[in-house]
Write a structure and sequence with these properties.
CATH architecture of the largest domain: 3-Layer(aba) Sandwich
Bound molecules: zinc ion
Largest sheet: 9 strands, mixed
Number of strands: 20
CATH topology of the largest domain: Aminopeptidase
Number of domains: 2
Distance between the termini: 37 Å
Shape: globular
Strand order of the largest sheet: 1-2-4-3-7-11-9-10-12
Radius of gyration: 21 Å
Low-confidence stretches: none
Helix content: 25-40%
Mean pLDDT: 95
CATH class of the largest domain: Alpha Beta
Length: 387
């Protein structure tokens, strides 16, 4: 195991933050520059006020250290327990402000670069009929793109550093949480078959699938390269093999207040079991730690079928439905109480499915969001992620 500290660009005189990564397994060296595989990249709390992942990383690190000490990490696992030191330091009026960069108002998990156009222009005449060499070429071209990018702001240097660590991984796990939520994950359709064992290990209450959610989040910047390049090749009539060589996911570890050792240990063991399933870690000595495999408790649903519930009136929120609860159309989700008029507004489920997230505050303005239901029928278009 080794720790690498990555200084970020200093935004102001006398002020510099550092991103730290832990590397388990056989890292490539100057003598043997080939990346050992599988490579897995795991980061926590890119939205810096979403803390369950940070505690999961803390427990996962112990498991990885034990495996590494036994020589049981044949590839490489990169762990970044604090993926956003910029957001973690932001507070306004005594409250953490970890989702948006206060300097630019940008969401820390949006606006990642889309490399596909440049990669396709560069590689379209270089692709071969050998899938492995095509994968190696794309990864090298991606590395070259990152090396040509010179960040000029602290936020860009954070994005550049995270992509530098993750760009050539076979699997990318981005640990987030919702305000209040049942454990769920987002991934792109092209990644689902590879990540279904992870969803089973985590016992996800909902799985949201999309093909390009919009907004360029971190996970889709990495997985999107592969299916978009494959689509571009097909559209250009190029018959070349290009597998989905990076499968990435955003894992929502319940709600912001669900920070406790028992949940974090369970989640860390589930992720570790997935790594074991995939051959990222191996070895009998750790096997007793692995929980038994269980069936997935939900069917994956399209992100375009997820209903975000809103209220047309302001008031005090009294939830009737709990996160993780399966709802039918018309079921009561919440009442919005106006104590001045004594009017009660009912908010009902518009689609059938699991209520996988709720807001944390108990007062809403008119038009405000209340929660999200994983419906099975797509009905939304355009940008599918929230602010
Ligand atoms: Zn998040």
């Amino acid at each position: 195991m080794r720790r690498i500290d990555h200084p970020l660009l200093a935004p102001s005189l006398g002020c510099q933050k550092t991103l730290s990564s832990w590397h388990f397994g056989t890292a490539p060296t100057g003598d043997n520059p080939a990346q050992k595989r599988p490579k897995v990249y795991i980061q926590a709390s890119l939205h810096a006020d979403e803390l369950p992942g940070m505690l999961v990383a803390h427990h996962l690190r112990s498991l990885l250290e034990a495996a590494d000490a036994l020589g049981d990490v044949p590839g490489e696992v990169v762990l970044v327990p604090v993926a956003n030191p910029i957001g973690l330091a932001q507070r306004v009026d005594h409250r953490p402000m970890g989702r948006f960069d206060l300097d630019t108002a940008e969401n820390f998990n949006r606006h990642y670069p889309d490399f596909v156009g440049a990669l396709f222009d560069h590689l379209r005449t270089a692709f071969t009929h050998d899938a492995a060499s095509n994968v190696a070429m794309v990864r090298q071209a991606l590395r070259d793109q990152l090396q040509r990018w010179t960040p000029t702001t602290e936020l860009h240097s954070l994005r550049h550093t995270l992509l530098g660590l993750a760009h050539d991984a076979d699997y990318v796990l981005d640990l987030h949480c919702d305000c209040e939520g049942a454990l769920h994950l987002y991934t792109e359709e092209a990644c689902w078959s590879a990540l279904e064992p992870l969803a089973r290990r985590l016992q996800c209450a909902a799985v949201l699938l999309a093909k390009n959610s919009g907004g360029n989040p971190f996970d889709e910047c990495l997985s999107g390269v592969w299916w978009k390049l494959a689509d571009a090749c097909a559209a250009a009539g190029l018959q070349v093999p290009l597998p989905q060589a990076c499968c990435s996911t955003t894992i929502e570890l319940r709600g912001e207040a669900d920070v406790c050792h028992s949940l974090a240990q369970t989640d860390a063991q589930a992720i570790f079991a997935f790594l074991h399933d995939m051959g990222v870690v191996r070895g009998a000595p750790l096997s007793p730690l692995l929980p038994p495999a269980r069936p997935l408790p939900c069917q994956p649903t399209p992100l375009a079928g997820s209903q975000t519930l809103h209220t047309p009136v302001p008031g005090v929120v009294v939830f009737a439905a709990q996160v993780g609860q399966r709802l039918a159309v018309g079921d009561l989700v919440a009442e919005i109480i106006d104590p001045l008029s004594r009017h009660t507004h009912r908010v009902e489920a518009g689609v059938a499915g699991v209520l996988y997230a709720r807001i944390r505050d108990r007062y809403v303005h008119a038009g405000g969001e209340l929660g999200k239901i994983a419906g099975a029928t797509p009905f939304r278009t355009g940008a599918l992620l929230g602010a």
